[in-house]
Amino acid sequence: MEIKVGIIGTGRISNVHINSLKKIEGVKIISVCDIVEEIAKKRAQEIGCRFYFDYKEMIEKEKLDAVWICTPCDTHTEIVLFCIEKNLPFFVEKPPALKEEECEKVIEKLKEKNIPNSVGFMLRYDLAVEKLKEILKNEKVIFISAEWFWTIPLVDSIKSKEKAGGQIVDQAIHFIDLIRYVFGEIRSVYTRRVRGFFPEEKLYTGDDASCTIFEFENGIYGNLLCTYSLFPEITKYYPPKIRFICKKKLIEYLQKKLIIITSDKYEEFIWNEDPYFLEDKEFIESLKMGDMTLIRANYFDSMKTLKVALSANISMETGREIKI
Ligand SMILES: NC(=O)c1ccc[n+]([C@@H]2O[C@H](COP(=O)([O-])OP(=O)(O)OC[C@H]3O[C@@H](n4cnc5c(N)ncnc54)[C@H](O)[C@@H]3O)[C@@H](O)[C@H]2O)c1
Q1: Which strand (E) or helix (H) includes residue 33?
Q2: Third-level CATH fold of 3-120+275-295
Q3: Residue 155 above 90 pLDDT?
Q4: Which residue lies with its CA nearest to atom 19 of ligand 1?
């Protein structure tokens, strides 16, 4: 069985998915679409497929089995709603939307029509996360501490907090999702932030740093430190990480890596498999088998993650703790 795929948005992240999809047996990329004509044409030439400048035209004309939506976040909802209307399975990059009301509209439609869908929280497919989830079942977690230090976004569409949601909604949302996935639900968030250190960055409207406290449903607390104030190379020396402080044990998660420290042992475990590839492979597999249980982050669950991230934004605006 061949799965015929269309790609909507052929910018930065689409390359990652295109490369994965090319490696998966039984997948054919039929067409790509981008509103910037040169980008669409160039990508189509590289793949050897048709190109469009209007996603609606592409969906109407091609007989696709699924689309990968790789456009900026503020376009996700209208494209997702069109896919549902056309009964077309979709993978949508994170964050699923910019506002909770948008997600609610989508969920209402998905309740009427159960269209297969997957949201780009690829860390759920990281084999290190699989192992972490298993380990945490037998641990008493006392505190969770996450950090994501980076630079002002390199892509213009993400520089604007109004268009992309800011660092927590666009980037650290991966960690909020991961923590929910391996540990449990968040009951409330309280966030403080600083901004205004980069007046020379004309397109940038985000926060320069923020500090969030989470309260989990089981009563423990965690924090998340974010900054866009550094430089792209920082992740080479200081990669984004989550530390699970357990009884007499520290477990640190870094992408594709776990470090476990006890009083008498320091252990490192590394996995080579690419979580983006595994994420795409599982969605294709689920379409082939008609088995949606293979999808680890569907739209319904992803909305809960988005709600936590958006609540952090509300908290930093209002100075109040926000109950989820
Ligand atoms: N999962 C991850 O690790 C990860 C990493 C990077 C980006 N992303 C997400 O992927 C999405 C895209 O980010 P990016 O960095 O690739 O952005 P980008 O700006 O590099 O690419 C987006 C592309 O979409 C095109 N586009 C915009 N509106 C369109 C429309 N209506 N129809 C067709 N094409 C349209 C743009 O012209 C652009 O080429 C965002 O939601 C972002 O948060 C996820």
Answers
A1: strand 27-33
A2: Rossmann fold (3.40.50)
A3: no
A4: 11
For residue 142, report the phi and psi dihedrals to the nearest 5 degrees: -105, -35
Is pLDDT of 157 > 90?
Answer: no
Asked if 310 and 96 touch (Cβ cutoff 8 Å), the reply is no
Mutate to test the pocket of ligand 1, among 7, 8, 12 (most ligand atoms within 8 A of CB): 12
For residues 154-162, average pLDDT? 92
**Domain segments of the chain as ranges:** 3-120+275-295, 123-273+307-323
CA distance 208 to 206: 6
Q: Are 248 and 200 in contact (CB under 8 A)?
A: no
Q: Give distance in angstroms: CA of 120 to centre of ligand 1.
A: 12
Pocket of ligand 1 (CB under 6 A): 8-13, 33-36, 39, 55, 70-73, 75, 93-94, 120, 122, 155, 157, 170
- Give one DSSP letter per residue of 218-268, joined into a string: TS-EEEEEEE-SS-TTHHHHS--EEEEEETTEEEEEETTEEEEEETTEEEE
Question: ω into residue 275 within 30 of 0, thus cis?
Answer: no
pLDDT at 66: 98
Position 187 confidence tier, pLDDT thresholds 50, 70, 90:
very high
Which of 8, 16, 34 is the pocket-test mutation for ligand 1 (most atoms within 8 Å of CB)? Answer: 34
182: three-class secondary structure by DSSP: helix
**pTM metric for this prediction:** 0.97
So what CATH class is 123-273+307-323? alpha beta
CA distance linking residue 297 with residue 94, whole number of Å = 10
